[in-house]
Amino acid sequence: MSNKKRFSLLLVCMMALVMVLGACSTTKTNPSGGSAESNTAAQLDQIKQRGKLIVGVKYDTKLFGLKDPGSGKVEGFDVDMAHALAKSILGDESKVELKEVTSKTRIPMLNNGDVDMVIATMTITDARKKEVDFSDVYFQAGQSLLVKKGSPIQGIEDVTADTTILAAKGATSIDNIEEKVPGVKVLEFDNYQDAFNALKAGQGEALTTDDAILYGMAAQDPNYEVVGKPFTDEPYGIAVKKGQTGLVEAINKGLTDMKADGSYDELYKKWIGKAPESK
Amino acid sequence: MLDFSILIEYFPDYMEGFLNTIQASLIALVGSFILGTIIAVFRITGIKPLQWLGTAYVEFIRNIPILIVVLFFYLGLPSLGARLDGFQAGTLGLTVYTSAFIAEAIRAGILSVPKGQMEAARSSGMSYIQSMLHVILPQAIKLVIPPLSNQFINLIKNSSVLTIVAGLDLMYFADSINGDSYATVSTYIFTGMFYLILTLPMSYGSHVLERRLAKSS
Amino acid sequence: MITFHEVDKFYGDFQVLTGINLHVESGEVVVVLGPSGSGKSTMLRCINRLEETSSGQLTVNGVRVDERKTDLNKLRRNIGMVFQHFNLYPHKKVIDNITLAPIKALGVSKAEAHQTAMHYLEKVGIADKAQAYPSQLSGGQQQRVAIARGLAMKPQIMLFDEPTSALDPEMVGEVLDVMKALALEGMTMVVVTHEMGFAREVADRVVFMDQGRIVEEAPPEQFFSDPREERAKLFLSRLLNH
Keyword set for this entry (chain B) (predicted)? Predict the structure, then answer.
């Protein structure tokens, strides 16, 4: 009898907890709304005061942000971009602190103030624009497919509802492929490396994400190749906390300067191996 | 902070994950109980090769992270010619991993049954297995219920390991909902509540069972 | 029926039994006496191989107990055993304690096993407790159930390992009475006990053991009135002055 009582007490406590949390949500809507609006340069000021840029990048994505297990250094296009922006904003390209983000954590980390900006192969979408602000496009990618050499899949037109597609969690690539091939089976993994391992183990027929990342994987293992033409436009943007237009402007100025003085093309060539297609 | 529209909007996703988690947990629960019991008996038979096998199994499995066990079944087995999907590999990994802990709990239970019980059973002409099945194990189970229910609660929580092999469990859908909604805190609080729906009755049930069995002896 | 020939037993370096020679005829009641630690329980437990012998030959009913290839389960079905601490199965009712082995080991039908069990429960005088759990019974009642459990296998031999040592004094009698009745029916019995009265009254032969050896073997009247061996005399005088 007393046991039953204790159990119901526990349930009541749980309910109460939910209520309290629910109540919090009504009092604390949109933290960046009211106060931040008045100071759109708060984040930029904070960066200058600190004298250091805290940037969220990926640690698991070849060519863009990859941690070398030997040296412990994180290297890639996104990392070099962070240093270039530090030079533009703070005048010293070494004033950068990197933090690891994943597709899953990058927006929460940004909103929590753990990082000033996220440079992490992040596609600009309308849904994301509701959560964060984006800079101008800093890299033009397109979604494509990675398959084992000799695969019958040679492009998006070969993907059917019976195909198993592997992808990374929280990426727009999942929505895209589901839109192109309704009913396709998609298996989501924590990161690209896990998805690639699953592809190698034959757990799916093709891995999909932005071609820039796929080329990095194909470079890792010559048994795999990128097939077909990119079937989406994936403009990568640098994300900052919503409302921090001052910081967005500073980033855009840095990007414009880099494109003007040729250092952007240099960077592109260093990692992707060819010059960017002019649009 | 807590956004109930997430729960409503993504309810079908939550349910699919929830049902898969229940399924994986049930299979692993039954499987690890049977496997764990066999391993426990191996360890106390007094037959050296079986004893050695049982000890090696327990020490090997319980001293590596469950993640590695599951990844082995998902990524490693294909190179040996057998391919399991994420759900199968995850559930199998969960079963194998949990069975090592169950084996230890059951072994302790068996060892605390007085020696005279086995002697009485064997001297009446029953085989070792019959004696185990009808005399020793029913008594051991009683002593083993508290540690066993702990293991089963752990098992339900550990089932979230299916996520890393895309096993379509509750946590997998939680990640996916989070990726879509960006409402991280709400998404995972609701997810935690779904786990509580499974684990709370489990610990309540074990208390009741424990009390009832204590009465009967 | 039971024959020990030069049987030794070691626990590691320690010798528990030395040169045991003993023959028990069918229908004979042999009581084994001796101080504690003299090896009498160990010797008894060798008969159904709860303990392994180290050397020598041990034959029961023409079957070599000490050989590896012996079918132990078959051998044991023919030898009932009663323990000092009863060892009833606490999770089973009295009736199920008795029917378990006949059903599982002999393959007897449930109905037949039940009938047999009730027969022996009546014989030991506690048929009314068939549906009770062991913990609801007194020590004397539990030991009588244990005897019925042994008898339900219809064995040719019954072994008793200090069957009254764990009982309160007022319950010793009821158990000894059951054993006496059994002896009168001609059951082959080997009994390790401290009950001198029982030995004197029921035994066909008394075996006295000390330090792992059989020191003296005699009919009870001779053993109790005129023991030959010094150690037996000492043992008896201690008991009488106790």
Answer: Amino-acid transport, Cell membrane, Membrane, Transmembrane, Transmembrane helix, Transport
Nearest CB among B78, B184, B208 relative to A202 is that of B78
- Displacement of CA B7 from its chain's centroid (Å): 28
* B2:A22 CB<8 A: yes
Side chain identity at residue A108, one-letter code: P
Record: contact B204-A3, CB cut-off 8 A: yes
Q: How many CB pairs under 8 A join B and C?
A: 70
Which residues lie closer than 8 Å to C87 by C-beta, 6 or more apart? B114, B116, B117, B119, B120, C146
Which residues of chain B lie closer than 8 angstroms to C48, CB-CB? 123
What local confidence, expressed as pLDDT, does residue A28 receive? 38
| pLDDT per residue as tens digits for the range C15-45 | 999 999 999 999 999 999 999 889 999 999 9
Topology given in CATH for the domain delimited by A143-227: D-Maltodextrin-Binding Protein; domain 2 (3.40.190)
Q: Is A107 on the interface with B (CB under 8 A)?
A: yes
* Structural domains of chain B ordered from first start: 4-216 (1.10.3720.10)
For residue A185, which phi and psi values (nearest 5 degrees)?
A: -90, 120
Average pLDDT rounded to a whole number, residues C205-213: 95
Q: Do domains A42-140+236-272 and A143-227 have the same CATH topology?
A: yes
CB contact under 8 A, C101 and B217: no
- What confidence score (pLDDT) does residue B203 get? 87
pTM above 0.80, yes or no: no
A-chain residues near B2 (CB < 8 A)? 18, 21-22, 24-25
Nearest to A190 among B1, B164, B196 (CB): B164
- Domain chopping of chain A, boundaries: 42-140+236-272, 143-227
Instruction: Report yes or no: C47 and C2 within 8 Å, Cβ to Cβ.
Output: yes
What fold characterizes domain A42-140+236-272?
D-Maltodextrin-Binding Protein; domain 2 (3.40.190)
Beta bridge partners of C57: C5
Mutation site for C-interface testing, chosen from B124, B126, B134, B145 by largest number of C Cβ within 10 Å:
B124
